[in-house]
Structure formats: C-alpha cells, structure tokens
Specification:
- With about 100 residues, the chain is an all-alpha fold.
- About 75% of the residues lie in helices and about 0% in strands.
- It is built from 2 helices and no strands.
- The protein has helices at about 1-45, 60-90.
- Helix 1 (about 1-45) runs antiparallel to helix 2 (about 60-90).
- InterPro entries: DUF4235.
- It comes from Streptomyces cellulosae.
- This is DUF4235 domain-containing protein.
- It holds the Pfam family DUF4235.
C-alpha cells in the first residue's frame, strides 16, 4: 500500500501540469482584464502606456508596469493556490513535490 501512495505522489505533478497550464492561462486573462479596469480607474484612460510609447513619460510607463506586475503576481498566486488546494481536497495529495515551487 505504501508503494502505491509513493507512485501516486510521483505521478501527480505530471497529471497536474495540464491543469496548471489551464489555470495559468486563465489567471493571465483575468489579471489582464483586472489591470485594464484598474488603469482606467487610476488614470481615466482606456489604454495603459507601453514601454515603447514615444509620447509617454518614464513615470507613467513605470507606474503602469508596477501595477500590472503586482496584479499579475497576486492573481497568479491566488489561482495557483486555489487549484492546488482543490486537487489536494479531491485526491488527498498535494499536486507538486514538497521542495521547490513554480520557478
């Protein structure tokens, strides 16, 4: 019985990969929408500045990048954690190895 448990733990990270990919894609989409709405509230503009926008100042570009990065990190972490907890509840096994993490 113990051998079966160890095999299940080794196979879970591989089985979680497609789920993790789908969750990552979804979280990126949600974060992008959240950033657009946040930028519209902060600056009353539909489009956030891009690093290559010639007419934007450094401050605007760096502010947009900082806000976007923070939103993406929070959304990605929340979605990853919720997905891992759901897998653990349904299978009884945490979906990734004990050591290490996403990166």
């Amino acid at each position: 019985m113990a051998k079966k448990s160890k095999k299940a733990k080794k196979k879970m990270p591989l089985a979680y990969k497609p789920i993790g990919f789908a969750l990552g894609w979804t979280s990126g989409t949600v974060a992008g929408m959240a950033f657009q709405k946040t930028w519209k509230v902060i600056r009353k503009e539909d489009n956030a500045p891009d690093a290559l926008d010639r007419d934007r100042r450094w401050g605007e570009i760096l502010l947009a990048a900082a806000i976007q990065g923070a939103i993406f990190a929070v959304v990605r972490s929340a979605v990853d954690r919720a997905g891992a907890k759901a897998i653990e509840r349904s299978t009884g096994t945490w979906p990734v190895p004990d050591k290490g993490g996403r990166d």
